[in-house]
Amino acid sequence: MAPAPSVRGEQLPAGGAADRRVDVGESPARRADPPQPARRVAAVLVRLGGSCVVGHGAMLGRRTLPGNRRRPGRVTLAADVASPSAAGMLAVVPSSAARRTTLALAATLAGPAAWVARAAWGLPTALGASQREVQASAAGSPQFADGRFHNRLSTPARPPASAQRGLLRQMHEERDTGLPARPVPVTRPELPAQAGELAVTWFGHSSALLEVDGRRVLVDPVWGERVSPSPLVGPTRLHPAPLPLEELPQVDAVLVSHDHYDHLDLPTVRGLLRTQAAPFVVPLGLGAHLRGWGVPEDRVVELDWDGAVRLAGLTLTCTEARHFSGRFLTRDTTLWASWVVAGPRHRVFFGGDTGYTPAFAQIGALLGPFDLTLLPIGAYNDAWALIHMTPEEAVRAHGDLGGGLLVPVHWATFNLAFHRWAEPVQRLCAAAERSEVRVAVPRPGQRVDVLAPPALTDWWSEVGALADEPVETGDGGAGSSVVARAASWLTARRAGD
């Protein structure tokens, strides 16, 4: 195991309401301290003054001072209140009505306040590096101009008006469409002690472990429960991770396609820092995120499109993709990419997350053909058709690349769009059959020997889509994902106006 680097954690600001002491004439049984958010709300109420009064007895750390006479039905501020202005505002009012009113208001506000505090826990760190920090590695890139990276093909930052109208309707009516009806079957991986000649283990979404000519490469590893900067808001997993991160064998490299949360996950990065020694090979700009999260400089390799690095006998080439980047409202400050992993005998193409582009044919001509392609097939929608392939486009891209076996990724694990859960793989299999393309669709956690792939087995139809079941549904996270996309598009539109 690699030694664990020092990574600074986050702490919420310490402290709470000032130690204001009140005497409300309550019995000792009601003097237990309440939760910290309630104390903060109560402190705000004290500052508001007027007819507002702090009830709930010990909500503010109440003590009765010697000589402070109690008068039944009255509330008085103790002589040592922390804020003289608050003391002046606190009037003598009927205590029973005041306590009921203030307690109800404090209880009403304390819950949301506590939730917001939890939702914001660690937010600045998860957002990653600032735009200024990222741009240091972008200078000189042909893809970088006017403060951001660009696709080589024109790719509008916002959808057409017709798609925007449809998106609003889908957010309201179809946000649960992508949920599975039954549990997604997960297989515990059976990983050999030594890496094989050519194999892939799919962990869900775009996370996979490649075995190429006796070496191991981990791509887009995401083990987190939620793909979001917040622990409480954003799309959650639809199935558990098939294997604990610490049980992964040692890998020779970690590849990341871009900085979106479903591809670059802070908790997973920190876990890999503790358990692995391999370098992170990433597109330009992502190194600033990694270094800010404690990844040592000597474990970060940043590449532009068409750049390459040799590691452990493998050549890793950063290749073009048609997508975008951003971890908050600012878009395209880091580069996005696909990847080629080439060994002495075998070659693999990893698409990451991309729309269809003619660049696939160029990549196939220069760096192919490929024994294996991992291509995204899910999260497509008319509103972002240029940056996410449909299953049919994935089959077309596989042909452009000169691919042998196609293994679909970017589906099944997170609800990021409005199609039914199994629809991407159903459409993929139909298109592959028409084009006579060989496909393997592993369960999450299943290892596929590319040189002797298993027969195609339909395991997804039994899972089904919750939208087809006569039950009430909850929020699987699509709404949060689309809100983030909409905010990003709005920011891009304002920047362009």
Description of the structure:
- Strands 10-9-8-7-6-5-18 form a seven-stranded mixed sheet, with helices on one face. A seven-stranded mixed sheet has the order 11-12-13-14-15-16-17, with helices on one face.
- It is α/β, with parallel strands linked by helices.
- The chain has 13 helices and 18 strands.
- It has two domains: 22-119, no CATH class; 172-495, Ribonuclease Z/Hydroxyacylglutathione hydrolase-like (Metallo-beta-lactamase, Chain A, 4-Layer Sandwich), CATH 3.60.15.10.
- Mean pLDDT is 79; it is low at 1-93 and 478-497.
- The longest helix is centred in the N-terminal third of the chain and has 25 residues, at 95-119.
- Helix content is 28%, strand content 15%.
Brief summary of the model shown:
By secondary structure, this protein is of the alpha/beta class. The chain contains 13 helices and 18 strands.
What is the element layout, followed by pairings?
Layout: E1 22-23, H1 36-48, E2 76-77, H2 84-89, H3 95-119, H4 123-127, H5 131-135, E3 144-145, E4 148-149, H6 161-173, E5 198-204, E6 207-212, E7 215-219, E8 253-255, H7 266-275, E9 280-283, H8 286-292, E10 300-303, E11 308-311, E12 314-319, E13 338-342, E14 347-350, H9 359-367, E15 370-376, H10 391-401, E16 403-409, H11 423-435, E17 438-439, E18 447-449, H12 460-463, H13 478-496
Parallel strand pairs: 7-8, 8-9, 9-10, 14-15, 15-16, 16-17
Antiparallel strand pairs: 1-2, 3-4, 5-6, 5-18, 6-7, 11-12, 12-13, 13-14
